[in-house]
Design brief:
Blueprint: E1 30-35, E2 38-43, H1 48-54, E3 80-81, E4 100-102, H2 106-121, H3 137-144, E5 164-165, E6 171-174, H4 183-192, E7 197-200, E8 207-210, H5 226-230, E9 236-238, H6 239-244, E10 249-254, E11 263-269, E12 272-278, H7 291-295, E13 310-311, E14 320-321, H8 324-342, E15 347-351, H9 357-371, E16 376-378, H10 385-394, E17 412-416, H11 420-423, H12 425-436, E18 440-444, E19 453-454, E20 457-458, E21 461-463, H13 470-483, H14 489-495, H15 498-508, H16 515-522, H17 526-538, E22 542-546, H18 548-551, H19 556-569, E23 580-582, H20 589-594, E24 601-602, E25 606-607, H21 611-621, H22 633-642, E26 647-651, H23 655-658, H24 662-671, E27 674-679, E28 691-694, E29 703-706, E30 711-715, H25 727-737, H26 747-757, H27 766-772, E31 774-776, E32 820-825, E33 850-853, H28 855-861, E34 868-872, E35 877-884, E36 892-896, H29 904-907, E37 924-930, H30 936-953, H31 964-971
Parallel strand pairs: 1-4, 15-16, 15-26, 17-18, 17-22, 18-21, 22-23, 26-27, 27-28, 32-36, 33-35
Antiparallel strand pairs: 1-2, 3-4, 5-6, 6-9, 7-8, 10-11, 11-12, 13-14, 13-28, 19-20, 24-25, 29-30, 30-31, 32-37, 33-36, 34-35, 34-37
Helix pairs in contact: 8-25, 9-25, 9-26, 10-19, 13-16, 13-17, 13-19, 16-17, 22-24
Length: 972
């Protein structure tokens, strides 16, 4: 099972992807033409260049690439067309029926060679030492055109001594090698949508410029890497390639950051990653990336990685490095001891949303079959559990309805409680491209995000509601749709439960739900609400995208149901360009829910009380399964403080930093007798652990992730697990020591079991994933290739169900003592609790959490920009630097939670969603005042952290035990 010598899956075919020069066109009309004597048939609108490539003929090119619209500047792709004068550029010339094209002739060769000679006359001839040697299109084209001599010397004016811009930590800009092909500028505009690059100067003085001739780090560049990927020379080059040289093979895998699920080629030299390049055939990202996935992968080999198992009796004891055998034996014996003393339900487990589907499945199986209870939960509890509940109740399935690509068919886009440009940037780029093409935009957010107003993007409506009033706002939108006769009556009559609709219609039509009546609650002008409602209901294909700003509320589940009500009421379900689309936060939060990590549900969202489902798993697993739901994460904490929950297996989650009311969480963990943490770093939760098992990064394992669009994608191992084992192997070994055998030799066998036992995964296999690239569940006999769009002809539950969503104000009220509302979110360069991104160069963009506060609130309190402020709530207080900003409305302050010392969740309270216990992170009543020193919590945190790191440092001085290779042999 633990053979580490097996070959890693190398995908040579994915190393050099075919570039067809211009994008593919979609058309019902096909055009047949002749290219170099060959007959080629392509869709109307296709360029001659692409038609030639599809016919097997590669026309020379430099400014053209199939990820960008044709530009026609390099003049290398000239062709001859019978009956036409001159030599048109094949990239900008569309095909025509009967056209006869020649791509090679003595004259074309002469012209192309002359063009190349001009390029090379102002280009360094340092090919042997150039970092792009072997991966340079300019070098390739010099060979293709047969250029052997450059007649023009370097005596005249040139750019050979242009200064390099080394400001960006991930790539270098060497202007001396720029051929002004415009590909980087176009990639920044068309692919990313940031418009950070331009061409400055004219004629000979033309050069690529970030911003107004600024260094890259001072410009609006977001370091997505699109410009670097588009560059055909070494002008824009990854510093990792400069340092390590060109890669020699690649493996296609899936990013382990946000819920977009981008496919990447890990380009390798042996077992060392040289760079991560977005995979052009990746169905979630189609060759695009963000700064995290593209560049922030160095954490996998960071010096802070925990590489040896460790144990200790108390959290005040030094850590002791031990063998895998000893660590696992100790963990199992402690769990057995606790259950014997406190009962079967006294221990539980937490499934990671950063680990694979297969690893999460094993953890929940371990809890149910090995622990003998249902005390298992996942981080979705604190982010998207209301999505699962709300969509299940209304539509019948606990997941989003569309593909990301579907947004390209949207006419109206409503974004509520989400900031995709920061949290889901690759999807945001796709969305912004559609907006630039003419789609209309509604943003419902208390903060002015980039989508509200930025270059080339302007929301038609921004509804800056007060935090905590989503349900009131959604009811007001529904009121307008109902009372102004904007309902899709035919859709409702055919697809929805009639009685439930009538009750909902009568409810939202009440005067108290009107925009005018709700204005006092939401703080939004009625005319804005009415305009937004009319646009959503009548503007064509309308799609709703929402995030944690919807779910992390006391009425999170209510708001999700209200969103589904809106979509059903207007018929915006079941086709391209519409739908209800939750933007999941972590890479596998959707998958962790799908595979049964909630205490009340087995894989496939089937309740543990259902005897048929339970017997299915009992037969497969050979055990009895408790029919009673187990403890949710908040219940685990409360039970620990009550003395009835004493042991926890926590794989890949940092609950101390990420869960609300940090002091309550820390007290609960301190009360437990055995905490086993499996992770790649000594995180905040691991400081409370008694057993620390080294985890494995996404580069060290095989498996699958499921993204926010239900897309199951392969994760492929590119290097051996640095600590000896992938996470799934460790769970198997722990289960064995608890007396429960799990016999798998590869994660594919785990997926086979999931498919056998879960109807929505019935047709999923690794072979099919490798063939199709990815699969969106449900995948079964009715949909063998998966289901891109849900609820097409009917809802999963049969008829869609409207549910009354009465607005109930949160218990978290502002008072004279706590007059401001704190809401939280993310920032582009950092990810979740920051354990990964803080150990990369991303800290150059965001090195600390700050508190955004409106100028009025700051002036009223004597707060200056950059000054220290104390933020106090009913739960606790912390100190951050202030950033005075008009992105916030008066009365609302905002911060991120990426740095543990910030203590953002020290402030957040135990308030939670009524249905799922999802914490109300987005509404905390606070007071903010200027101070000169850290909070008492921060002082205690600093002392505790220093102690824990000192105890960790002592592990190296502990008695010698078996090293990792010996442990590997003993477990084999």
């Amino acid at each position: 099972m633990f053979d580490q010598s097996s070959e890693y899956p190398v995908m040579e075919s994915g190393f050099t992807e075919r570039d067809f020069g211009t994008p593919a066109r979609q058309s019902d009309q096909m055009v047949t033409l002749e290219i170099d004597g060959r007959e080629v048939t392509v869709p109307a609108g296709t360029s001659v260049m692409r038609a030639a490539a599809e016919g097997g003929v590669n026309v020379p090119k430099l400014c053209a690439t199939d990820s960008l619209e044709p530009f026609g500047s390099c003049r290398l792709c000239l062709v001859e067309i019978e009956g036409r004068r001159g030599y048109p550029a094949s990239c900008t010339t569309p095909v025509a029926a009967g056209m006869k094209v020649r791509t090679q002739s003595p004259k074309l060769q002469e012209l192309r060679k002359g063009v190349m000679e001009l390029y090379i006359s102002d280009h360094p001839l340092d090919c042997l030492t150039c970092p792009a040697n072997g991966d340079c299109e300019l070098q390739d084209m010099a060979g293709v055109t047969g250029l052997r001599v450059v007649r023009y010397g370097y005596d005249g004016q040139n750019h050979l001594n242009s200064a390099k811009d080394e400001s960006n930590p991930y790539f270098t800009y060497d202007a001396s090698k720029c051929i002004v092909c415009n590909r980087c500028v176009r990639a920044c505009e068309e692919t990313q949508g940031t418009f950070a690059l331009t061409i400055s100067g004219r004629g000979f003085d033309s050069r690529v410029s970030p911003g107004q001739d600024e260094p890259f780090m001072d410009s609006e560049c977001v370091s997505c890497g699109a410009c670097v990927q588009a560059c055909p020379t070494a002008t824009l080059q990854e510093k990792s390639v400069i340092e390590l040289g060109q890669p020699e093979h690649s493996v296609v895998t899936t990013c382990a950051y946000c819920g977009v699920g981008c496919a990447f080629k890990a380009e390798m030299k042996g077992s060392e990653v040289v760079r991560m390049v977005p995979y052009k055939n990746g169905q979630a990202n189609e060759g695009h990336s963000c700064v995290k996935g593209r560049f922030a992968w160095g954490y996998a080999t960071h010096k802070d990685r925990i590489l040896k198992p460790m144990i200790r009796s108390k959290i005040t004891d030094p850590w002791k490095e031990v063998s895998w055998d000893e660590a696992l034996d100790y963990a199992a014996s402690e769990f057995k001891r606790i259950q014997k003393k406190y009962g079967r339900d006294s221990i539980g487990g937490i499934v990671s949303s950063r680990c694979t589907n297969e690893e999460g499945y094993l953890v929940q199986k371990l809890v149910r079959a090995g622990f003998g209870n249902n005390n298992v939960d996942t981080c979705a509890r604190v982010c998207h559990s209301p999505t699962g509940y709300g969509l299940k109740q209304t539509l019948g399935e606990s997941a989003g309805t569309q593909t990301f690509k579907s947004v390209e068919q949207s006419d109206v886009i409503l974004v509520i409680g989400a900031n995709p440009t920061d949290a889901h940037p690759v999807f945001a780029s796709r969305m912004k491209k559609r907006l630039r093409a003419g789609a209309r935009l509604i943003v419902i957010d208390p903060r002015v995000t980039e989508l509200v107003r930025s270059p080339h993007i302007q929301a038609d409506y921004h509804l800056p509601l007060k935090p905590g009033t989503n349900v009131a706002m959604l009811s007001a939108l529904a009121h307008v749709i109902v009372t102004e006769g904007l309902l899709n009556e035919d859709f409702i009559a055919e697809r929805c439960e009639g009685k439930a609709f009538e009750q909902w219609r009568d409810f939202v039509a009440k005067p108290e739900n009107s925009p005018e009546a709700m204005a006092e609650v939401t703080g939004v002008a009625p005319e804005l609400v009415r305009g937004a409602a009319r646009l959503y209901a009548t503007g064509g294909n309308a799609a709703i995208y929402y995030g944690l700003g919807v779910t992390e509320h006391a009425q999170g589940s209510t708001a999700v149901m209200a969103i589904a009500n809106l979509a059903m009421a207007t018929g915006n379900i079941g086709r391209e360009g519409v739908g209800v689309n939750p933007l999941r936060g972590q890479n596998n939060v959707q998958g962790s829910c799908d595979i049964g990590s909630f205490p009340h549900e087995l894989p496939g969202y089937r309740h543990v009380s259902d005897s048929t489902t339970r017997h299915l798993f009992e037969s497969a697993w050979g055990v009895s399964i408790n029919p009673e739901p187990g403890l949710r994460i908040p219940n685990m904490f409360d039970a620990a403080l009550d003395g009835s929950f004493m042991g926890l297996y926590c794989q890949g989650e940092d609950i101390v930093q990420s869960d609300p009311n940090t002091q309550h969480v820390a007290a609960a963990l301190s009360a437990m007798e055995c905490i086993v943490v499996q992770d790649i770093f000594m995180n905040e939760t691991a400081m409370y652990a008694h057993v620390l098992l080294p985890g494995s990064s996404f580069l060290e394992k095989d498996g699958t992730f499921t993204n926010a669009e239900r897309r199951i994608s392969r994760v492929r191992k590119v290097m051996a697990p640095r600590a000896g084992y992938a996470d799934w192997e460790v769970t198997i070994e722990l289960a064995k020591r608890l007396g429960y055998e799990m016999n798998y030799s590869h994660p594919s066998e785990i997926m086979d079991e999931i498919a056998r036992l879960t109807p929505t995964f019935q047709g999923v296999t690794y072979a099919k994933l490798d063939k199709l690239g990815s699969i969106q569940w449900p995948c079964n006999t009715e949909a063998p290739a998966g289901t891109p769009i849900m609820h097409v002809d009917e809802f999963v539950r049969g008829k869609g169900k409207f549910i009354i969503t009465q607005y109930v104000a949160t218990d978290e009220k502002v008072t004279r003592k706590f007059p401001l509302i704190l809401t939280t979110g993310r920032i582009l360069s950092q990810y979740n609790v920051g354990a990964q991104t803080r150990r990369t160069e991303n800290v150059h963009w965001h090195e600390a959490d700050v508190l955004e506060i409106h100028p009025h609130d700051a002036q009223e309190r004597g707060i200056r920009d950059g000054g220290w402020v104390n933020i106090q709530s009913r739960a606790g207080d912390t100190v951050l630097r202030a950033q005075i900003s008009e992105r916030m409305q008066p009365g609302v302050v905002y911060t991120t939670f990426h740095f543990p010392e910030s203590g953002a969740n020290v402030i957040t309270t135990d308030n939670s969603d009524w249905a799922t216990n999802c914490p109300e992170y987005k509404v905390t009543a606070v007071q903010v005042m200027p101070v000169n020193e850290p909070s008492e919590w921060q002082k205690n945190y600093s002392r505790f952290t220093e102690l824990q790191h000192a105890l960790l440092a002592q592990a190296a001085d502990s008695p010698a035990h078996e090293n990792v290779p010996q442990a590997t042999k003993s477990l084999a």
